[in-house]
Amino acid sequence: MAEASKRVWTDATQLEARLDAEFYQPHFLEAERRLRRVPTQRFHNLWRDSNRIYIGIAGFSERTQDRDYTPYIRPTDVGTNGEIDWNHIAWCYAEWLNDHSVSGCAKAGDLLVEVKGNTRRVAVVDSSVPANCIVSGSFWRLTLADSVNPRFVLAYLLSNTGQLLKRRWVSNSVISWIDPHSFRRFQIPVPDRRIQDYIGAKVELAERCRAVASREREKLGTELAALYEGCPHDALSSLTTMVETAEIDGSRLDAWYHQRHFITLTDWLRRNPAFVELGNVASLSSDRWSPGAHGQSAFRYIEISNVDSSTGHVSHSEVPVKNAPSRARKLLRGFDVLVSTVRPNRGAVGLVPDSLDGAVATTGFAVVRPVSKTDAFFLLAVLRHPASTAQLMRCNTGSAYPAIEESVLPQIWIPGAKPGIRKSLGARELRRTTLLQTAVDLVDQAKADVEGLIEGTLDVQAILDGTLKPSTADDIPELAEDTA
Question: Which of 92, 190, 98 is nearest to 150 (CA)?
C-alpha cells in the first residue's frame, strides 16, 4: 500500500466534492488516472432506482423463545472474497419486516456494500438467501440495472484498484463512513457486457463451489455426529465445581482443569471403546529447520494467521532467510496437519497442501503427521470437531496469552473409526476443502482479470470473439461429480 504524503499539490482540474488533503493523495490520483483507460459510469447511473440507497438496520446474534425472528446479515458474515456465510447469520425481530420489507430485505442478485466501520466488505447475494432476510445498517443494498453484471461489479470492488478507490471516499472520524453523496459519485468500469459476463462467470462459479462445499459440510457434520453420538462435548460450564478426591488429576491442581464439563467429557471418551488416543494413529513431527542450512535465500513461512479456521486452508508468505523469525523452526511435509497451540479455542487447525512440502511453520503449531493422505483429511475433520477443541481447552494455561503444550496432542481422544469410514470421511473433507480453495482461486482470477482490463493486458478481443472462455463446472472435477 502506498504511503500517504504529508503535503499534496493538485490543480483545479482535479478538484471534486472534497477539499481535504487525504482525498488527493498521489496513489489515489494515479489509480483514478489508470481507471480512465476503460469506460466508466458513476455508481448511481447503474442502479435501477438511482434516487434510493437501501439502508439496513440493527440486529442480534442470538434468538430467545419469546419473540419471532427473521435472518439478518452482519458485516462479519461477509468474507474477504465476497462470500456470505449463511450458516452463521444473526437474527432480528420478525415484526420489523413490516417497516423494512422494502428497504432492508435482501434478494438474489443484490449488491451489498459496507459503508460503515471496516468499509472493505462487499458481496452479491446468492440464491441461498433465506426468505425475509434483512441486511445490517453497515451495508447499503443496491439492485443494479439489467445492463450491468453484479458479479463483475463485485470483482471490481474486491480488486486492488476497487478497494483503493473505495477507501478514497471514506470519511474518518470516530467510525469510518462513506456518505451517500460520495457513494453515488464512485466510478465503476463498464466494459462491453461480454467482458463483464466473462469475469462475472468466475465469481458465479465460485458461488457454486461454495454451495456444494456447504452441502458437503452438512453431510460431514452428520457423519461426524454419528461417530460422536452421545458425546457430552457441548455440556455447559458452571461457576463452581465440586469434585471427588478420585477425580483430581495430580498433573494439574487448578480449578480450570477440573471443571465438571471437562471431567465429564474426558471420562466419557476414555470409557468409550470406539475412541482412541491420537498418538495411536498419528505422530508428532520433530523435523526442524535452521536458517542457512539449506542454501536458500528465501523460504515459505506459515504463521498461525495463515490458517483459515473456517476452511482449514493453509497459505504462506515468502520470507528472506536473513529475516527469518526466531520461531520459524518447524519443517513441514505435504499433508501434515497443523494445530495451533496458542488460543486453541479459535480452532486454527489446517492441512499443509502438497505444494507446500518443505515449507517452514512457526513453533506455535503442533505438527501432526498422518500415515496417509486420506487419514490427513480425516484427522483435519476430527481435530476441528468441538470435542477435540474442548479437550485442548482443558489443557489450556495462561490468561493474557493462553496456550497448550504440543505434548497434549497425542493424548487427545478421537474416533477410532474403521478404515472404510475414515476413507469416506477423509474424501468428503478433501472435496469440501478443495471446493472452498477453488472458490478462492476463481475470485482471485476474476480480480486479476479486472486489473488486466484496466492495465490493458486482458485479451479483450479473444473474449469478444468467443475464443477465450471462463471455466465451467465441467472443468472442476469436484463439481462435475455433484448430482445435487
Answer: 190
**pLDDT by residue (tens digit) across 143-166?**
898 889 999 999 999 999 999 999
Task: Give the three-class secondary structure for 65.
Answer: coil
What values do phi and psi take at 114, rounded to 5?
-75, 125
Residues 6 or more apart from 98 whose CB is under 8 A from it? none
Q: Report how far residue 106's alpha carbon sits from residue 102's, in angstroms, rounded to the nearest whole number.
A: 9
pLDDT digits (tens, 9 = 90+) for 158-189: 999 999 999 888 887 678 888 877 888 889 99
CA atoms within 13 A on the CB side of 288: 6
Compute the Cα dihedral for 445, 447, 450, 451 and give only its sign. negative
Q: How far apart are CA 255 and CA 428, in angstroms?
A: 39
338 vs 324: CA distance, rounded Å: 20
The C-alpha cell at 88 is 452463521
For residue 401, the 8-state DSSP code is S
- The HSE-up count of residue 99 (CA atoms within 13 Å, CB side) is 9
Residue with cell 468409550: 272
Cβ(316)–Cβ(302) below 8 Å: yes
Alpha-carbon distance of 440 to 24, in angstroms, equals: 33
Chain centroid to CA 405: 27
- For residue 40, what are the β-bridge partners? 189
Euclidean distance between the first and the last CA atom of the chain, given in angstroms as a whole number: 43
Query: Which residue in this structure is represented by grid cell 462435475?
Result: 480
405: exposed, middle or buried (C-beta count within 10 Å: 0-12, 13-18, 19+)?
exposed
| pLDDT tier, 102 (very low <50, low <70, confident <90, very high otherwise) | low
H/E element holding 453? helix 419-455
State the amino acid at position 52 in one-letter form: R
Element (H, E) at 201: helix 193-227
Query: Biggest alpha carbon distance in the chain?
Result: 82
**Closest Cα partner for 349 from 310, 302, 292?**
310
Nearest to 36 by CA among 401, 323, 453: 453
Q: In what order do the strands lie in the sheet with 328-331?
A: 317-320, 298-302, 360-362, 328-331
Which of 378, 381, 407 lies closest to 395, judged by CA?
407
Q: Residue 111's closest CA among 77, 137, 142?
A: 142
Q: What is the pTM of this model?
A: 0.83
Quick one: angle between helices 260-271 and 386-394, nearest 10?
A: 120
Indicate if the pLDDT at residue 475 is higher than 80: yes
